Amino acid sequence: MFSSRNKSSQHSRQTKPRSKKLSLLDENIDRQIQVIHAAIAQKLLNSAELRQLARDKIEAKFKQGRLSYSEYLHWLSTLDNFELTDTFILGFTEYTPQLRRWRRNTPFTGILTEEERQQALEQNSAGTLTSALNHPF
Question: Which of 25, 29, 84, 89 is surrounded by the most beta carbons within 10 Å?
Answer without folding.
Answer: 89
